[in-house]
Amino acid sequence: MSAVIRPAETLAVAGAGPLVRPLAPPRATDAVSEPAWVRRTLIGVALAFLTLFLFVPLVAVFVQAFAKGVDVYWAALTESDALSALKLTLISAGISVPLNLVFGVAAAWAIAKFDFRGKNVLLTLIDLPFSVSPVIAGLIYLLIFGLQGWCGEWLRDHDLKIVFAVPGIVLATVFVTFPFIARELIPLMQAQGQEQEEAARVLGASGWQILWRVTLPNVKWALLYGVILCNARAMGEFGAVSVVSGHIRGQTNTLPLHIEILYNDYQFAAAFAVASLLAALALVTLVLKYIVERRAKASHQEARNEH
Amino acid sequence: MSTRALLLRRHSVLPGFNLALGFSLLYLCFIVLIPLSAVFLKTFTVSWGTFVDTVTSPRVVASYRLTFGASLLAALVNAVFGLLVSWVLVRYRFPGKRLVDALVDLPFALPTAVAGIALTTLYAANGWIGKLLPFKVSYTPLGVFVALTFIGLPFVVRTVQPVLEDLQRELEEAAATLGASRLQTFGLVIFPALAPALLTGFALAFARALGEYGSVIFIAGNMPMVSEITSLLIITKLEQYDYAGATGIAVVMLVTAFLLLLLINLIQAWARKRQGR
After folding, report:
1. Do A65 and A276 meet the contact criterion of CB atoms below 8 Å apart?
2. For residue B171, pLDDT beyond 60
3. What does the buried/exposed string (b/e) look like for A34-55 if buried means 16 or more CB atoms within 10 Å of the residue's CB?
């Protein structure tokens, strides 16, 4: 049987190449496309706009950073105030990202896997920090923990410092990065539904097992992207941190605040040197985002092919 | 009765609802809701008259005018160019397109202070761009507009782009078959389909610009009555230990932001309804 079929198959495959090509649909774009000169003009204008507002500022950061040579650049980064600012930035991101990660997973689990009263209100409240100005995000902690604030006197009597100290900086950072991870997870987990989790449950898996073995592997790319975004924002936050920091050099300065001080001191090359660190972080964030999006697309395609 | 029985609309076999929702609500309350309520409670400690005087004093009103005006103008420019950029990215092919597409998110990822000093240096009288211009940009209200345009740039592109990608080409083909010119097709078929996304992107860029601080303070010059934005005025009041004054202005800004958020939600609900039809 198979011996009879095989030559026919080979023939069909061999003939497919030259035969099919002329039959491919002609470029049906003329009616729904623009003349070449319009296309070129539009591309040109769009690129000119992006160059002026995006690329030139980005390039300028690196050019200005090295304007006075590599020695000045290196000195600006290894100076003790810069190092302590870097340390504080890493500490505040290191605390706020894991906190918001746990919150993001918990909120997404509750919202995506269950149907409960007040869900839409909760969704709106999670987005709230996005629409609060960073300066106000700092102000609210000042009103609570500042000397004139609710807990001000109690904190002073117990010799605790929250604002104008590290805890205040961490709190303000947690506030401004609050929605990032939840925002990435919720829509995806809602779209995925709960059938897989329910199947795991029926097969006897515990809640934590379901979370670790089913839910988190399904959303790993979105989770990773949320963490990256959250981290970038945590390390770069300026307004909120500025209000609660008190600007004590070497103690309560983060990298963005250190940039401000250097810039206002007319130490432009040093300011841009530190800025180039954060700009590099932003570029890494964009590259990771690009990779994550491609992986997400690929796994989406895979899932579709399996069905 | 447990929260599970109280809140759940439908029985579920999955565990962890109480823990997940309980933790989420607790965290939300401690990090966001209680601190935010402090702003409103603080305002109640001053009389209505004092509050009105604070938020309508000439210097504050001048800052509203600048903040709202520059934000509106920046959001408008972003709406026009954001639509153009997303069109070019979705419909055309050119070298470096992927790179350009990835870099559109730069203002999201770049810390505002970095953007601020970069733009200030570029648009200063002796900067790369400032040198070429016959008028001053840095340290004028125009500088505020430049900074706000930069930070609002991704919003319109990222809201319009997915809608444009999903747009059915058949509709345009049908329009062309029926004798519509390309411009007519764009105006009567494509643009109405994009309008809700464009409006959402515009509102998001506007809302973001209203509260922006880091990128603006470097380039604005911060002259009272001329180039002082509202966010900066809050900081100035705080530095003078005028907490009540700062809080009063903050309440005005917060209420505006919440109204905008409501408006954005309404636009999106309207868009969903239109798509569903």
Report:
1. yes
2. yes
3. beeeebeebbeebbebbeebbe
With contacts defined as CB-CB under 8 Å, which chain B residues touch A99?
A: 27
What is the ipTM score, two decimals? 0.88
What are the pLDDT digits (tens) for B71-115?
999 999 999 999 999 999 999 999 999 999 999 999 999 999 999
Q: Does A54 touch chain B (CB under 8 A)?
A: yes
A31 and B177: CB-CB below 8 Å?
yes
Stated pTM of the model:
0.88
Integer Cα distance of A80 and A62 in angstroms: 22
Tokens 């599970």 correspond to B4
The answer to whether the CB atoms of B118 and A206 lie below 8 A apart is no
Contact criterion met (CB < 8 Å) for A237 and B81: no
pLDDT band at A30 (very low <50, low <70, confident <90, very high): low
Has residue B1 got a pLDDT over 60? no
B128:A56 CB<8 A:
yes
Helices A56-65/A268-306 angle, 10° precision: 130
Other Cβ atoms within 10 Å of B150 Cβ, number? 27
Query: In the numeric block, which tokens belong to residue B65?
Result: 């005018």
Determine the residue of chain B that is closest to A49 in CA distance. Answer: B81
With cut-offs at 50, 70 and 90, classify the pLDDT of residue B2. Answer: low
Helical pair B141-166 and B112-123, crossing angle rounded to 10 deg: 120
Token pair, residue A297, equals 């697309």
Give the three-state DSSP class for A262: helix
